[in-house]
Amino acid sequence: MTPILKLPGVGPALAKLLQDHGIKSVEDLSRRSDAELSKIPGLGSSRIAKMKAASAELLGAAAPTADTQAAPAAKSGTAASRGAAKPASPRKPRTVRTPAVKPETVAAAKTAATEAAETVKSGVDTAAEQGREGVDSAVAAAEAARLAAEAKAAKAEAKAAKAAKKAKALMAEFAAAKAKAKSKAKKEKNKAKKEIAKEKVKAKKILSDKADPKKKKKDKKSKKDK
Fold first, then answer.
1. Banded model confidence at residue 91, pLDDT cuts 50, 70, 90
2. What is the distance of C-alpha 85 from the center of its chain?
3. Which among 40, 49, 51, 148 is least surrounded, fewest beta carbons within 10 Å?
4. What integer pLDDT is reported at residue 172 of this predicted model?
5. Residue 210 in 3-state DSSP?
6. CA distance 81 to 157
7. What sections of 60-102 are H helices per DSSP?
8. Which residues pair with 25 in a beta bridge?
9. Cβ–Cβ < 8 Å for 59, 26
10. SS3 of 207, please?
11. pLDDT(9) > 60
């Protein structure tokens, strides 16, 4: 039995992984099918193919696998007449050649990337500058609106104060006029009372003279004597 660590490309970590899944030798690996090996975590189809090829080279011949076992004969005696089926040789992985990249292409790609980065940076700077200008304009507009509102409020306040002063003056004038009219009305009332009293006295005297003619003559005589 060939230890699995003898297989080219298999280190201690991979060997432990394979051993944990029951593959302890190169012969064990060669007997496993690709489907079985693909169930082991970390093993892809490319790596499996490389290990199979390396195991075949190491053993000097391809080992039979579960995928390549001969199918049962459809008719009896076929396998005996034709001989034992030969195990299929594992396919060697194709070598993918990476096309060589010209230095001019690399330089052009670097230049394009630099120009693109500068363009992006310029666009970001322009957007930031426009954003700052927009903020400054908005702040200036808000400040102008505030000053205009304050001026309008001050004007309205002055107008209200003037109106209040005028209303106060009118109220004082109205109060003075009311007091004057009241005083005048009182004087007129007193005068009217005096006139009424005087007229009452005259009327009383007239009635008295009419009621006593002798007294009237006596009064006239007394006036002549005087």
1. low
2. 73
3. 148
4. 92
5. helix
6. 123
7. 78-82
8. 3
9. yes
10. helix
11. yes
Residues, the chain, total? Answer: 226
Integer Cα distance of 33 and 214 in angstroms: 176
Please report, as a single letter, which amino acid is at residue 105: T
Q: Which of the four pLDDT bands, split at 50, 70 and 90, describes residue 206?
A: confident
Residue 161 has what DSSP assignment? H
**At residue 203, what is the residue type?**
A
Greatest Cα pair distance, the chain, in angstroms, is 204
DSSP state of 65: -
What's the CA gap between 49 and 93, in Å, rounded? 6
The pLDDT score that the predictor gives to residue 64 is 47
CB 90 within 8 A of CB 51: no
pTM: 0.28
DSSP label of 7? S
Going from the C-alpha of 222 to that of each of 23, 128, 186, 204, 215, the distances in angstroms are: 177, 126, 41, 20, 10
DSSP secondary structure string for all residues of 57-124: HHHTSPPP-STTSPPPPSSTTHHHHH-SPPPPPPPPPPPPPPPPPPHHHHHHHHHHHHHHHHHHHHHH
Q: How far apart are CA 187 and CA 195, in angstroms?
A: 12
Side-chain-side CA neighbours of residue 154 (13 Å): 6
Q: How many helices (H) and strands (E) does the chain have?
A: 7, 0
Q: What is the CA radius of gyration of the chain?
A: 67
Q: Rounded CA gap, 198 and 192, in Å?
A: 10
